[in-house]
C-alpha cells in the first residue's frame, strides 16, 4: 500500500513540481506547465496523465489496479492507479513517464 504522504513525496521529488488544488484532489504539475498527476485521499487513488499508447502499456501491468478514467479524459490517457494495490516501483515509473511527457511536450507558459 502506498499512502497519500508517500505518493505526494514521490510526485514532488521531480524537479520543478508543485501542488495545486484540483476539485477534491491535489494536483501535481511542473511549475508553469500542466499537471501530470492528481491524488484523491478519500479512496487513496491517483490519476496519472499519459499518452493513449502509454496508458495501454501501464493498464496491462495490473488489470485490477490500473485502469482508464471512465470518461473523455480516460480516452485521452488519464489513468487511475489504486494505491492500495499497486506497487511503489510501478507508480514511480508511471510518474516519471508522465512527468517527462509534460516536460518535453508542453511549453512553459
Please give a structural write-up.
There is one protein chain. With 109 residues, the protein is α+β, with helices and mostly antiparallel strands. It has one domain: Aspartate Aminotransferase, domain 1, CATH 3.90.1150. The chain has four helices and six strands; from the N terminus they run H-E-E-E-E-H-E-H-E-H. The model has no long low-confidence stretch (mean pLDDT 96).
Overall 3D form: globular
Enumerate the strands of the largest sheet in spatial order, edge to edge or round the barrel.
1-2-3-4-6-5
Number of domains: 1
Stretches where pLDDT is under 50 for at least 5 consecutive residues are none
Could you write a compact summary of the structure shown?
The protein is of the alpha+beta class and 109 residues long.
Amino acid at each position: 500500500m502506498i499512502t497519500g504522504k508517500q505518493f505526494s513525496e514521490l510526485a514532488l521529488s521531480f524537479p520543478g513540481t508543485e501542488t495545486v488544488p484540483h476539485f477534491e484532489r491535489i494536483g501535481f504539475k511542473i511549475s508553469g506547465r500542466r499537471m501530470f498527476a492528481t491524488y484523491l485521499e478519500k479512496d487513496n487513488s491517483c490519476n496519472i496523465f499519459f499518452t493513449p499508447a502509454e496508458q495501454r502499456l501501464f493498464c496491462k501491468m495490473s488489470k485490477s489496479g490500473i485502469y482508464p478514467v471512465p470518461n473523455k479524459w480516460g480516452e485521452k490517457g488519464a489513468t487511475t492507479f489504486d494505491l492500495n494495490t499497486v506497487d511503489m516501483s510501478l507508480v514511480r515509473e508511471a510518474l516519471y513517464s508522465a512527468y517527462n511527457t509534460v516536460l518535453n511536450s508542453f511549453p512553459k507558459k
